[in-house]
């Protein structure tokens, strides 16, 4: 399942550099996560790094983008293919 950032985001800028896929970027009001790039860090780390560093716990599973571990791993492999 891809992640999303809720409106509790305080724009602290700590999540964006932690994303190994470049899925996090500034939105119009708060940071946003591109579900096409988000693998929840599957293939890179044991846990989602953005969730680990978020000081206000505003990064949650996106109910509109449910993906299995296998799908996330396939996305990781596609994104990191040379």
TrEMBL record:
4Fe-4S ferredoxin-type domain: residues covered: 1-29, 31-64
A GO cellular component entry from the record: cytoplasm
Cofactor or coenzyme needed: [4Fe-4S] cluster
Domain of life: Bacteria
GO MF terms, alphabetically ordered: 4 iron, 4 sulfur cluster binding; metal ion binding
InterPro entries per record: 4Fe4S_Fe-S-bd, 4Fe4S_Fe_S_CS, PSI_iron-sulfur_center, YfhL-like
Pfam families linked: Fer4_7 (PF12838)
Keywords attached to this entry: 4Fe-4S, Electron transport, Iron, Iron-sulfur, Metal-binding, Transport
Alphabetical list of PANTHER family matching this protein: PHOTOSYSTEM I IRON-SULFUR CENTER, PHOTOSYSTEM I IRON-SULFUR CENTER-RELATED
Protein name (Swiss-Prot/TrEMBL): 4Fe-4S binding domain-containing protein
